[in-house]
Task: structure prediction
Amino acid sequence: MKILVCISHVPDTTSKINFTENDSAFDSNGVQYVINPYDEFALARAMWFKEKQGASITVITVGNAGTEPSLRKALAIGADDAIRIDAEATDGFFVAKQLAEVAKSNGYDLILTGRESIDYNGAMVPGMLATFLDYNFVNACIGVEIENNTATAIKEIDGGSETLSTSLPLVLAGQKGLVEEKELRIPNMRGIMMARKKPLSVVAAIETEATTKSVRFEKPEEKSACKMVAASDIDGLIDLLHNEAKVI
Ligand SMILES: Cc1cc2nc3c(=O)[nH]c(=O)nc-3n(C[C@H](O)[C@H](O)[C@H](O)COP(=O)(O)OP(=O)(O)OC[C@H]3O[C@@H](n4cnc5c(N)ncnc54)[C@H](O)[C@@H]3O)c2cc1C
Result:
């Protein structure tokens, strides 16, 4: 089975978020980047297929040279080769078009993505990718088994789960639960050394227009300071909860 895992290179969740250009652009100064956490679940599931059933794993990203450490980390975890499509990923449509172009020419049985990127949270790429390729698609996936050409996938639904049967080729957007957290991989020294020798090819982007543009970002309101109430002051606590926090 040929598996493609789409990797989005996103700010670390502990990063301080600031905007520039009149709050219309993300300020990447001093920001540390990591593999999108949902993509780590996808990669771990791909590794499971590789080890249990036999599969080749290619990882791919649309991004500039600064995204390569995330690809190298995926190679260190166990992917066989990597592709970087050399372009700034400025919107979901653009990214999906680029990924589809490479996927079309290489022919994958299974394309694993995250449910959403944790930076712009567009959740646009996987569905569009499946559409451009005319592949089957399962979103919000929390489990998958594949036998011959048939995939049995479990997806999260409001308050429960749904089990679906579909056929390959398939785009599957994964999330927490696709593997258990203890199955997430941390590269070891051997993996890091081997990753240096694994192929990472850089391909040119195709001509495609972005269809969305950020106009303005707004941060959530700062949380107010914690107020301490004496244990004996029940009336004061109720007053604060009722009149200030407005939760009762
Ligand atoms: C300089 C710059 C400007 C930007 N301006 C805008 C803007 O104006 N408007 C806007 O909406 N967004 C903007 N973005 C963000 C950009 O749209 C997203 O990073 C990217 O398109 C992913 O879209 P998404 O959030 O819909 O991904 P999602 O659909 O949420 O991601 C789901 C999954 O798709 C895959 N995926 C997502 N991105 C990539 C990628 N780059 N390579 C490989 N796989 C990927 C991953 O598996 C990911 O888990 C900008 C980004 C940059 C760097």
